[in-house]
Amino acid sequence: MSQQQPPARSPRRHPARAHRPRALAAAGALVVLPLVTACGGGGDGKGADGGKAAPGVTAAPAAGVVAPAKVEVIAGLTGCTAKIRIDADELRQGLCHTKKADYLITTFPEERFKETWLEEARVYGGTYLVGTRWVVSVKPALLESFRAKLGGTIRELRGIGPKPGGR
Question: Cα–Cα distance between 112 and 39 in angstroms, integer?
Answer without folding.
Answer: 25
